[in-house]
From TrEMBL, chains A, B:
Assembly, per entry: Homodimer.
GO cellular component: cytosol
Gene source species: Limosilactobacillus ingluviei
Protein name, entry field: 1-deoxy-D-xylulose-5-phosphate synthase
Keywords for this protein: Isoprene biosynthesis, Magnesium, Metal-binding, Thiamine biosynthesis, Thiamine pyrophosphate, Transferase
Length: 589, 589
């Protein structure tokens, strides 16, 4: 049900409808849209601060320009809620029954006003340059506007984009949305320069954008609608690239978000009155256990350096930072830097522990190959979000097994429990031979003892020794493995073996040989993509033997906001489906 | 035999030995070392211009500082020959019999004066920052010097490094070696800013480095030894990060290299007198065939854009640029930019063809995932150097099948001949559904007709229909496949089938079903890493069937300057070894 049938927004079906409104009406829209951001985010979770802060930029863009003839490209696109409200998708914000119709990022399949599905930072300038080059080749006239936050500027691709933007001799409007924040705090010298520009109202002679040959205009209050309208009017149809340095307030118009920008960058569902999360945080977490261990090790004198690329909150790292600030390094949103500087630290005798998410670590793939794997230094890395799960396809975290386990020298470990994870972490920090990556489990904390302490030779845990079928359950899929083994017993009276392979990169040849002797079928279960995954490594190993293999995981595809249970059904990952598939194979033998 | 027993260099066993020399002697060393660079490169190939240009910086560094207590980190490290000559490895340049003892890049296993094995650009600042952070945590005092070329600055990681360098409150000396060149010409607005700094002798108020909070000092002639010594003396033991903007001449001291910096960036063996290549270029090449096709298509009105990230020479692209400059885009050394801007161009109706090398494309992995695959726009991409081959481990090009074939939506094609490659290219450009990547063969040009024109459904080419054993030979390994089939007939009297699978991502289920019925063993041959490769995809497919699989390719390891024939022996990739392995499997059945 539309919660606000009285809202002026109800009359806005496309940006064209804005053109008739006066300033007061546009301001009323801003107020309504802020309320809608808060209502939706508090109900289903989402980005708060970025959307509140960008309200006036969005309204002014659609008031002045003619979308989709003129085009706006949102960096990360987590700030595109107001844009969506004005481009035919208002019901996704007015009516809770329709919240699910609209994703949290730009989506070409939703609207002609969206051009890319985007969720990672620092891409918008490069995309806009490509659009401009295409426009010029086709001899068209259109305004192209890219909106990039100051926080996104620390990522190398943003710089590569700016460098190439300067080569254009045609229209390009780059809005640097300077809200003086990243996801967490901004990091690096770049922000001193931006601060100087703010202090001098854009007059400082030292100007990164001008240095690179870009025109430049400073806008002191990007949350003032009249100013933004005037600004966009002044640059509409400009014949060369220009940077609009627009200062906004992250979370503008909602005091709690203004006061706590990191907390309100993205929030899980929360109570609008109290500001508290709707769901209490779990009593224990894998992240907290890791931080506890690291604190103890620093206390004991181990020269640990904890490194994050701008997402300390995802790893409980603020607790570490508070206690040992000299051991804590946030490089900003700059994943390449996080990996390469860790390689150097490891080479120089420090024990770096790098905290990455599966989806963002993709941005440092060459640094994993050419810096970390090739130099084979003892970097320790924790990877979160390596899982088949609901959520946006832009952040799909199921590729890490493929891109990490195929690299030389790296040991990629997948613990099944908190005890095993800590055992692996202790070994990883103590050894000095190879880079070790640990795939932090994402499901509820499990307690099971570790069965080895030195992982330089992987010794499979054979949790149950049976025959005929062997189930190899990786990391977070351990519980699934137990369920499959239980159902095999119950339904088919098969006494299947259950194995914890621990490593995604190295195999225990002795145990695989044992499997070969006692079993007809080896089943692998992994919480990630099958292509290039763990299962394929096992399938290759057994390819020329009499043992058969059956691999379960995700197919080579993106899934956008599909509930995990639905994905499990689609991908044949429920215990029932797995047992059925096993039965079919056994019958065909 | 030492060709120059009379050289002063013979007395230099370690940098310490320089300290006694006077300026004239140091200059004599520079002259000798230039000659040695030319002799070695002309004999065995190597980087020319970078090493000639950096001579005085290197001599001054080792004269002023105390390596390895003080440390120099070379970006790309292709300019490290003079450094190697001064740090105990002179014989690798004086004596042709010892050329093979010393690699073309820094190598920690060669010397304590090298800290990383490096061959990709833009890493040195990030590495030096990591070293500095480690040094500070350990309470040590040492000078850390990173040397980065202006060409390397266009890569995002360089910017991420500079941004974080500014956070240090301790010694860090960043030498920006401004030789006004990249591998090819510099690209982007950044170089306007650097030009303005050169024009004003570093006095311009607009200064990228100062903008980011870094101290700055300009050096007009970095090929003047006295100046460089004085400069390093002035900043030795400095207590904060400083950029030394040092202007040098690429190829300094050798007129042909000064005159043609791109040609002399890296050269295959050449005649020092005539300047001509020792080995004539082959009559025909895959690259030339691609450019011919693109020229025809542009001529016919197809809106092609050819895109390179700074390596046009590797793809015959200068010929395209000359004819259609408006269709040609060199983004500089900025692989992320090359992919993301291509995605935008494809979205906007242009047909971008992106030219990448297997090893450098690693630097755009997230752009392949999050921009290209997720948005599934019709980018066409040519990948060179995807092969198991001799050469530096820093440029190992055997990972592309793993990192590309595991991604959704992408079609990764491996042609076996020039005709098949062009047929694939024509389809890739004509279709608008998916990103298509074509793995350009690296072996001698092969002529075989294509067996399909529309690759939206892969139809395996069954070149020979036999039984018992089926050999699937991918791309460049086609000839190997033919040899294996011939030897199977000759040695084992097996009439093996020979299949060209064409695609590294999609399978022909119908033909695989046929294979299953008529054969006991499927053998895969791929010119790349086995982990996450083509063979594993086939092994998984057949895992639960009665058919056995055997995969040939490279193991999960780096190989540094190992001749291809030796690698083939190591990896069981000779026809004899493959046939032996097949025989063993058949006997065990």
């Amino acid at each position: 049900m539309n919660l606000h049938p009285d809202y002026l927004l109800n009359d806005i079906n496309e940006p064209q409808d804005l053109k008739q409104l006066n300033l007061a009406q546009l301001q009323q829209l801003a107020t309504e849209m802020r309320q809608l951001v808060l209502e939706r985010d508090s109900a289903i979770g989402g980005h708060v601060g970025p959307n509140l802060g960008i309200m006036e930029v969005t309204l002014a863009f659609h008031y002045v320009f003619d979308s989709p003839h003129d085009k706006v490209i949102w960096d990360v696109s987590h700030q595109s809620y107001p844009h969506k409200m004005l481009t035919g998708r208002k019901l996704g914000f007015l009516d809770p029954d329709h919240y699910g119709d609209v994703t949290g990022f730009t989506a070409p399949e939703e609207s002609d006003h969206d051009f890319f599905e985007i969720g990672h930072t620092s891409t918008s300038v490069a995309l806009a340059v490509g659009m401009a080059q295409a426009r010029d080749m086709r001899g068209k006239q259109e305004n192209l506007v890219a909106v990039i936050g100051d926080g996104s500027l620390s990522g190398g691709l943003a710089f590569e984009g700016l460098n190439n933007a300067a080569k254009l001799h045609s229209n390009l409007i780059l809005v640097v949305n300077d809200n003086q924040n990243s996801i967490a705090s901004n990091q690096g010298g770049l922000y001193e320069g931006l601060a100087e520009l703010r202090k001098t109202a854009g007059q400082s002679a030292n100007n990164l954008f001008k240095f690179m040959g870009l025109d430049y205009r400073y806008v002191a209050d990007g949350n003032d609608l009249a100013t933004m309208i005037e600004t966009f009017r002044a640059v509409k149809d400009i014949d060369h690239p220009i940077v609009l340095h627009v200062v906004t307030q992250k979370g503008a118009g909602y005091a709690p978000a203004e006061a706590a920008p990191e907390r309100y960058h993205w929030r899980a569902p929360f109570d609008l009155t109290s500001g508290e999360d709707r769901q209490a945080a779990p009593q224990e977490s894998y992240s907290a256990a890791i931080i506890d261990e690291l604190l103890q090790q620093v206390e004991a004198g181990v020269p640990i350096a904890a490194i994050t690329a701008g997402i300390p909150g995802a790893f409980d790292l603020h607790r570490f930072e508070k206690q040992y600030p000299a051991h804590y390094f946030d490089v900003g949103i700059a994943e390449q830097m996080s990996v390469t500087s860790a390689v150097a630290m490891a080479q120089a005798g420090i024990r770096p522990v790098v905290f990455e998410s599966s989806t963002f670590l993709q941005r440092a793939y060459d640094q994993l190959v050419h810096d970390m794997a090739l130099n084979s230094v003892p970097v320790v890395m924790i990877v979160r979000g390596g899982t088949i799960s609901a959520g946006s396809a832009t952040h799909q975290g199921s590729f890490d097994i493929s891109y990490l386990s195929s690299l030389p020298n790296i040991e990629y470990l997948a613990p099944t429990s908190v005890e095993e994870m800590l055992s692996m972490l202790r070994w990883a920090i103590a050894q000095t031979e190879v880079p070790v990556v640990i795939r932090q489990p994402e499901k509820a904390v499990l307690h099971r003892p570790a069965t080895q302490t030195d992982y330089s030779n992987i010794d499979y845990e054979i949790a149950h020794q049976g025959s005929e079928v062997a189930v190899m359950a990786v990391g977070d899929f351990w519980t699934l493995g137990e369920e499959v083994v239980a159902q095999l017993k119950r339904k088919l009276n098969i006494d299947a073996s259950l194995i914890n392979p621990k490593s995604l990169t190295n195999i225990d040849r002795e145990d695989l040989h044992y499997l070969q002797e006692q079993h007809d079928l080896v089943v692998t279960l992994e919480d990630g993509n099958l292509s290039g995954g763990f299962g394929e490594m096992i399938a290759r190993y057994f390819g020329a033997t009499n043992i058969k293999t059956l691999n379960f995981g995700a197919p080579r595809e993106f899934a956008d906001n599909v509930p995990t249970e639905v994905l499990a059904e689609w991908y044949h990952l429920t215990p029932e489906q797995i047992v059925d598939d096993i039965e079919r194979v056994l019958h065909s033998m």
